[in-house]
Amino acid sequence: MQVNPSSPGDVKETGDWWREAAVYQVYVPSFADSDGDGMGDLRGVSGRLDHLAALGVDALWLTPFYPSPWADGGYDVSDYRDVDPRHGTLDDFRELLDRAHGHGLKVIVDIVPNHCSDQHPWFAEALAAAPGSPARDRFHFRDGEGPDGSEPPADWQSKFGGGAWTRTADGQWYMHIFAAEQPDLNWENPEVAADFERTLRFWLDLGADGFRVDVAHGLRKDLEPPLRHTRGNDAAPLNSPPQGDDHPFWDRDEVHGIYRSWREILDAYEPPRIAVAEAGVSATRLPLYTRPDELHQAFNFFHLRCPWDARSFRDVIDTSLEGARSVGTLPTWVLSNHDVVRHVTRYGLPEGTDPAAWLMSDGTEPAADLDLGRRRARASALLTLALPGTAYLYQGEELGLPEVPDLPAEALRDPMWERTGRTLKGRDGCRVPLPWQEDGPSYGFGPGGGWLPQPKGWGEYSAASQSGDPESFLELYRTALRLRADVRGSGDLEWLPSEQDELAFRRGRALECRVNLGGRPVPLPAGADVLVASDAPEPGGLLAPDTAVWLRPSG
User: Fold this and answer.
1) Buried b (16+ CB within 10 A) or exposed e, 268-299
2) Of all residues in the chain, what percent carry a pLDDT higher than 70?
3) Which of 37, 421, 482, 545 is the most exposed place for a label (fewest CB within 10 A)?
């Protein structure tokens, strides 16, 4: 790896710090365990903030750490204004905020407004109440179909497998887009809206810098009788049809009123706080979530899902930039997260491989070419970090972690595993606890083992083993993030002439990025001044296949 590091930039202390930031996703259960119970916690995060500061990110996003029965890894919340004992205490959160802010790092917390836990006091009250009661109106309870009400109210399917309706002891049914332990909240009920506004203010008053909004496109539903059948349309990946298709619970126009009210709350703080939407919607609809009076950003899953192809990437980049500019913002760029196969492995699988089927084969059919995956992951990191907008990094991608596809069946915790009759493994393979050291009972994750087993030899990916190695993933990310700080505000992306399988663009006078996605070397500009390369250029000034480079613009 060739490098020419520059001094790190400071985090902006203004309300627009997020526009070209690098945000690091901390999946709390798997980041660091301070007390040896095998579960990551807030003290563990506090103890590893030096790693994030040295990496060069601007903020960290914490996945849910609220009290939860853990039917879905903490995304089934039983109390939105406290900390689960397995993750610590409110004092631990306050300490984490203080330490993070001392490092110049912003802190974004996850908010889960579409559903709560079936152990939430509201749902317990609803089950004890009569049909038609105010307690049940906080959720979506309906009578069943058929002469005795024994059929679900509609054919809607859960994202985790099986039906999206569960029958209660008194014969009514309640709706849950995800697991049965995650009943959907009724956002037409003013009490629900008011309670979440209290939750937003609770965390903002403690000092949180913003929110990641889970399932942002699913809060409002059309449950006017008779309920419409969807014929399985709701079981597809989170990506709603284009504008004009009126789905009963995905991406309804009514959801935007919620975010306009939230924006007023966020803007009332000084400096203003921010929110990013997890909205799996079409490219034409995504900008609606980031209009000036709504949320600030939305995750760009089109970039994450893009095949390794120059034309495809260019189309996604152009579409993303155009959509964001239409509402006066910038895109986000995402390669991995806690819900998908890690991109080191994805890029090493043959095009067209079904990730779910591949996981069910324990990662053997087909075999992943991890050497290829690593080259492409390194190149995609430079591509992603060169683009205008905000980069969201998933913990461990800076270590080059691959997916763990062969976790034993008895270790799997994802609710998909049981809800699909053990035909889908789910997402545990990308959630295996991080390795921090080369050895030890959990490779430095904690004093004991981890809640998911780590593979033998996991320590070779550890931060300790990579730190200082100029050829490592970690040092590539550190260098790129240092250089990226100098590119902020440097102007729009300008495409440059390039080979057919190459991407080439410039960011003002600060940076030129070239990525070879083809199968043969391509020439670099004569006399190119290389700032950083995902792998060393070949002799004669050639950019090897599956390689990216940042150059100092010559003109």
Assistant:
1) ebeebbbbbbbbbbebebbbbbbbeebbbbbb
2) 95
3) 421
